[in-house]
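Saturday, quiet lab. Running sequence design on the structure tokens for the scaffold JK sent over.
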């Protein structure tokens, strides 16, 4: 397979918060990999803008070090690194003051694509947007990229949307959810809408239930105090898991364009039923002999914030009425694994008798690690001995099916940043989508607070609290094992 690099126009990309953790770990390594792939046109430039004092040379050294540390295999191609770093510039700027703004205005070339990445705390979104306009840095063609968290509830999300809308049209705002940039997520749409095979079965008549799992092995570590103000529902369910649920459940859009896709996703969120209290299980990880508990990490011995949550959701529309969606996510679980499992119903009549056992088709969409898809199908076990059935996976793991180049497909940040330069918003969240997601999430969080619910403790390296298993057991179902 020959990888195709689609050319983009030359750009000036300003990264506010260019010295921060996200910029160093994700954004610059992603840009570097695109540079190596030949997708950064000549004359393009990346300008870091942050509070600390650096000149361009010091900034290049800082980013060079970050790329070596976080850039993976590509970062080892050293002669390319210097070439890349030569395209970097830096300005010391105060997002809330006047320092650095006229200097930045003198750097950005208006005749190129201009994008401004807000890799800073959301409290700076307003001041940045305001100053970009006050200093004539932004016009109708500029784009801004904003990071999560986009609010912590409906009210704050509306406020952020309103602040940005004062200075930018919705078509200029790129709200990142990096889960949407994953290869498998787009492949999910290709599989659903590019084949006739799946869509007729994609409804409550044939799908028993759907599981979405995002499991991490890390705890909240050093950022426990920060995490404790949000928790798994706000940090993961409201955005990442909700986005995956939308892509799985949405109706086929009439076209694969940004607003057609996002209109359909929005309809899914609006059709979500409120979650009843006994369909929510929250947990906090315990201490081990060597590692602190969640409450220790959070620095609050009475914290009621969850590091794990499992939910049963229902979508009230013709396609999905009667098919539950089970979502779960947590920290310090037994493996790092993100996947969606579409579990189909049993065949209506078992012609092979009891001893053939129960066999179900399951479509697994793997987001990490080993991005890819497998479809479990039932076949006859080869050899003599009668009609014994066995489930085998039809493996669509990209590396196996399409060659090693496919496994090296751009990572989520690479793809999304290039989509910004291209002006394609399909894989970004629209303002009304984010608000609808908070509108559904708010009552869940409020209900928990009003009931003074205390999360259940769970052991590190497990699948979360036992109650999460009961949530499915009550329905005669079980979670898939969490494994890499
Ligand atoms: P960070 O604290 O490491 O970096 C913050 C950056 O903002 C620094 O470059 C700093 O100089 C700059 N900054 C702060 N105040 C400023 C001011 N007044 N004027 C100009 N620059 C200022 O933060 P981070 O981890 O890089 O996160 C940035 C944003 O991305 C946050 O909103 C965070 O929630 C979000 N985010 C981070 C991650 C991650 O993995 N780090 C993941 C997802 C989202």
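Result came back. Writing it out in full:
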């Amino acid at each position: 397979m020959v990888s195709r690099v689609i050319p983009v126009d030359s750009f000036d990309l300003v990264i506010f918060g260019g010295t921060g953790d996200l910029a160093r770990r994700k954004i610059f390594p992603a840009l570097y990999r695109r540079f190596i792939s030949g997708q950064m046109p000549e004359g393009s430039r990346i300008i870091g803008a942050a509070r600390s004092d650096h000149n361009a040379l010091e900034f290049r050294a800082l980013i060079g070090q970050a790329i070596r540390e976080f850039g993976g295999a590509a970062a080892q191609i050293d002669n390319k690194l210097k070439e890349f770093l030569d395209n970097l510039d830096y300005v010391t700027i105060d997002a809330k003051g006047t320092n650095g703004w006229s200097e930045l205005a003198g750097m950005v070339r208006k005749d190129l694509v201009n994008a401004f990445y807000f890799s800073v705390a959301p409290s700076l979104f307003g001041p940045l947007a305001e100053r970009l306009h006050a200093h004539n840095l932004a016009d109708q063609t500029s784009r801004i990229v904003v990071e999560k968290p986009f609010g912590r509830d409906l009210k704050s999300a509306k406020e952020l949307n309103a602040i940005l809308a004062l200075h930018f049209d919705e078509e200029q705002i790129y709200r990142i959810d990096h889960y949407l940039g994953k290869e498998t997520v787009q492949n999910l749409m290709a599989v659903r809408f590019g084949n006739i095979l799946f869509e007729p079965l994609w409804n409550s008549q044939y799908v028993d239930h759907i599981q979405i799992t995002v499991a991490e092995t890390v705890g909240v570590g050093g950022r426990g105090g920060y995490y404790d103000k949000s928790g798994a529902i706000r940090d993961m369910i409201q955005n990442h898991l909700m986005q995956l649920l939308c892509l799985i459940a949405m109706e086929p859009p009439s076209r694969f364009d940004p607003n057609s896709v996002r209109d359909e996703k929005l309809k899914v969120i609006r059709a979500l039923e409120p979650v009843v209290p006994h369909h929510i299980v929250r947990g906090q990880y315990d201490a081990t002999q060597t590692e602190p508990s969640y409450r220790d990490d959070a620095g609050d011995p009475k914290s009621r914030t969850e590091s794990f949550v499992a939910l049963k959701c229902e979508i009230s529309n013709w396609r999905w009425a009667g098919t539950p969606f089970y979502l779960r996510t947590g920290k310090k679980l037994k493996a790092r694994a993100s996947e969606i499992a579409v579990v189909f119903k049993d065949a209506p009549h078992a012609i092979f008798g009891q001893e053939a056992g129960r066999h179900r088709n399951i479509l697994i969409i793997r987001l990490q690690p080993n991005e890819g898809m497998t479809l479990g199908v039932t076949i006859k076990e080869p050899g003599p001995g009668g009609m014994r059935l066995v489930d085998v996976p039809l493996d669509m793991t990209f590396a196996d099916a399409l060659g090693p180049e496919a496994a090296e497909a751009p990572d989520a940040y690479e793809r999304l940043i290039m989509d910004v330069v291209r002006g394609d918003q399909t894989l970004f969240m629209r303002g009304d989508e984010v608000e609808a997601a908070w509108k559904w999430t708010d009552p869940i969080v409020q209900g928990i607070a009003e009931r003074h619910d205390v999360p259940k403790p769970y052991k590190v390296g497990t699948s979360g609290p036992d109650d999460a298993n009961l949530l499915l057991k009550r329905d005669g179902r079980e979670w898939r094992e969490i494994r890499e």
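Notes for JK: The radius of gyration is 24 Å. Residues 347 and 360 are 8 Å apart (CA to CA). Ask whether to fix the surface positions before the next round.
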